[in-house]
Amino acid sequence: MSKHETTRSSRDRRSVLKGLGAVGATSIAAVTLSGTSTASSSQRGESAAIPEGLARAVATARVEYKSRHEHFEAFDPNSLAQPELFYAAVDRNGAQEYLPAAWVYPIETDGTEVGHIAIGAQPWLPPVIRCGTGTAPQHRAAEMTITGDSAARSDADASRFVYRHPMTFGLELRSDSHRQPVFVDLYSGVATTVDDLSPYEPSKMETTQAEAQWQGIRRSRRRNETLSYSASSSGNISGVPNWDGDVCSTDWIGCSPVAGSMVVGYHENTTGIECDLMDELADEMGTDDEGRTKPWNIPAGIENYDSSYNAHNTYHGRRSEIMSEIDSERPCIVSYWGDKSSTVSAESGDIDVPDWVPELVGHSETAVGYEQDDNSWWDPTEPPLHVTTYDTYGEVNELTFTSSSLSFFITSIGA
After folding, report:
1. CA 41, 404, 318, 349 torsion-angle sign
2. Distance of CA 122 to the CA centre of its chain
3. Which helix or strand (DSSP H or E) is residue 132 part of?
4. At the top level of its lineage, which domain of life is listed (predicted)?
5. Domain 231-414 in CATH 3.90.70.10
């Protein structure tokens, strides 16, 4: 297998959702999730602050632009399928409320899904949240089965698609026995009780920046200007292996070890998928049986694996760190926190706490490229940064980070 070839699994290895035991399941049942029709998305989206028509225009422009770039050549701006609307749990005067948050469009070519793109459905979310070559998150639900307490997606009150951040799209369900809402990550398959998750709380700066971008887009539309994208600067690293951790084990090995293994594989000029390397990094990082890793264990695990590596986490100046690492031909790891409380501790410098939330790292991916927007409506000195990542499942994403984005950190690895 060449350095650029990637073995992909059938996703069956990731089809069993983990964590439902935490809901108090006593019986064993397996229920296939189905009925994930998107036919009523537009009707449900009538309350979205960003209407579907405007979201589609932004998605079309971005897909057309990305179709001229490596990894995304199969994208066709004329092949956006019917979107699904994902919701965010927000705190309104002490009460939790669900608001439309993201329009997620599957991208199809000749009837085959070749990727997806997520567009903000509120003015406090960035216009382009992410795009990727993998299956749209709403379609992953139909591929998964639930083991543990039986649950079914029956109606809007019992289940809804939920957006938490660019790396986490999920499905909220209820346990038949306990009627406790459960959040299921549609990428990792890990399930968590909704009570353990904090509401979505964008910072004032995030909101102001996103609103400025949407105002610029609306102004262009009123002037009948064509929406388009261009880059003021960019950088890419070739030769980084893109591995699917599912290939190596029937149990999920963990996104952080897989992301780290691709960086190490690049530095060691590895030509084939290295399952032993993933296993060793999982041990050195202390990754648990559900694939979760403590953030400070990522660089420590890399250095324990081989002391010739110099690894560290960056909690401030993260966008600059990504660009610096890519420009220096060093792929790095970008990770989202599993819970907002983790961000507060990290930003204050207090990360040595004994009892953290269950999901310490929400998800990790390997960053291999970036580009900065050339048409920033917010601040030309701080344009949105679009980061190309390998998602640890063998697919490629582009994640959007603004200068005010919170809840993520960078692991830099020098050889």
Report:
1. negative
2. 18
3. strand 128-132
4. Archaea
5. yes
| Residue 316 Cα distances to 95, 177, 284, 313, 411, angstroms | 31, 44, 25, 9, 12
- Provide the pLDDT for residue 48: 66
Q: Give me the residues paired with residue 165 across strands.
A: 168
For residue 17, the model assigns a pLDDT of 43
Beta bridge mates, 184: 171, 191
Query: Could you tell me the sign of the dihedral formed by the alpha carbons of 202, 204, 210, 214, in that order?
Result: positive
pLDDT exceeds cutoff 90 at 281: yes
Strands 95-109 vs 84-92: parallel, antiparallel or unpaired: antiparallel
> Distance between CA 312 and CA 412 in Å, rounded?
6
Amino acid at 155: D
Mean pLDDT, residues 380-390 taken together? 85
Average pLDDT over residues 297-310: 96
- What are φ and ψ of residue 380, in 5° steps? -55, -20
- CA triple 188-189-195, angle to 5 deg: 105
What is the pLDDT, as a whole number, of residue 177?
Answer: 55
Phi/psi-derived region of residue 138, left when phi > 0, alpha when psi is between -120 and 50, beta in every other case: alpha
How far apart are alpha carbons 173 and 152 in whole angstroms? 7
Q: Is residue 335 within 8 Å of 347, Cβ to Cβ?
A: no
Question: Among 292, 354, 301, 293, which Cα is nearest to 345's?
Answer: 354
Q: How far apart are CA 204 and CA 98, in angstroms?
A: 19
What digits encode the pLDDT tens for the residues 312-334?
Answer: 998 877 889 999 999 999 999 99
Residue 40 — very low, low, confident or very high, per pLDDT cuts 50/70/90? very low
